[in-house]
Fold:
Amino acid sequence: MQHDEGGVQPIDKRGAWLAVLAIAIAAVFQGMWDFAPHFLETPLWPGASLTLALLLGFLSLVAMVSIAWLMCRADGKGGQS
Amino acid sequence: MNSSVSYVAIGLFLAVIAVTLVITYWAAKRSHTTSEIYAAGGNITAWQNGWAIAGDILSAATLFGGVGMFYYAGYDAMLYSFPVLLGMLITLGFVAGPMRKLGRFTFADAVAARLSPIPIRILAALSTLAVLIMYLTAQMLGAGGLIEVLFGIPYEVALVIVGALMVIYVAIGGMLATTWVQIIKAVLLVTGVSILALLVLAQHGYSLDALYNKASAVHTFKDQVLQPGGLGLSPLDAASLSLALAFGIPGMPHLLMRFFTVPDPKTARRSAAVAASVMGFTYAAVYLVIGPAGVALITNNSDYATASGGVQGGTNMVVLHLARTVGGDVLFGLIAAVAFSTILAVVAGVTVSAASAISHDLYKCIFARKETTQRQEIMIFRASCVFMGVLGIGMGVAFKGQNILFLTGLLFSIAASSCFPVLVMSMFWRPLTTVGAVAGGYVGLGLSVALIIIGPNVWVQILGNPTAILPLTQPSIISVPAAFATMIIVSLLTRRARPAAT
Structure:
């Protein structure tokens, strides 16, 4: 029933690794949420309301956006086009 | 609430309608062929498409629901944003480029590229319509309630206004009008959250610590409001929710369709990066500034408190109360206009995709077996838009006041468990057979429905049973692996029969 296999797409290795990195960042962050909440509750300095959870949340968002642009840098350099 | 309806809000509401109708008129003059109607002729730039994708994904739930959830559950609200952004990266890394290369107009085009087209198109069209009708219903219910509160318009009239506008945009202006409605919405949303966040920070000497101190002081969770755990989700439930959102986004047919509006795969990928940037900025503003500000400035605020100690209009209205508190009527009006344009943009995106599934996948490729003219196909597309409009209004009326939490869970589960596995496996896994793809797709679809029914949102909250058979609110952690496993096993079992069947 399969018509042809010409439609199978090559995986862009750089993009795939970066996607795996993004998944790993999300998994680690969410893992800490569930298994190390006390670590995330650590104040950034004594008496601060700013906690590691908030800092890491911000850094994770920045990391995701940065990875998105790194994925695009592969285009035209031997990556997916 | 009607007494507090602002003239600025009504003025901006009318302005949004006027501007979007002018755009539709402009787009209609440029939309004559199926390529122009379904995919804006493939002439949208990366930046335009990126903003439009953000406009498609960032629904009213992001701003109103996100700030509202932060108000009662604290920092855990972020669990609903982070996986969505991850889903955009998965889309960028694996889906956007190949989608643009393989498909023409719909998600089914891409999955049918190398598989037997009829059964796979039927599955893709069914999954598409199931996801989009549920999405439309959830959006219409939210739209009716929100517009009723914001502008003092009765619920049913609000539904008719939204339904009529979405039919006009899509049926007349096609994908080009839909794209610009989504771009305008995204720009309004980013402008609104930026101004709101800046005003909040200005009130606290641009010190996040001062803002967070205030939020911690007034919330019932105290310090815990800025720490994980407020939603009380089990690790398994949280993981399942994340899986549904992260794999549901690259399986959303209306989002995937946006990649056909750009000229090439490279532009498709770049547009996904633009969308991720807009989403990342919005999430940072909503969850790190506006959410805590809602807690700090609206909790115990006598202007917005109800007699029972709640918030006027419910927690989804916290962002509007906050806008009025820090920016007066003008900012309230702007955020109200953001809400209205958000609703229009999302329902327009859903409608163009659902109507395309009917006219292109079901009518042209299955019933007419491609023996049809462009004129007939466009007629069917326009009739499908009207059908979706009437259906959306009808569903909005039928489900008024009912708990539809299960619908949102179900649509993400189907997208993650049926659309996404079929798409990814058909693009990248050479041994996949049509039988395997179809079996896996239906297993994902069927399991999503069955497991949601026996889960807490339906089994307990709607059917009134004391405990759920499956304690997960979101079943994707079961249905996604089951769909992939079925595809692999059935493909390997049926692969030997391939030469005889070809």
Notes: Chain B touches chain A through 66 residues (CB under 8 Å).
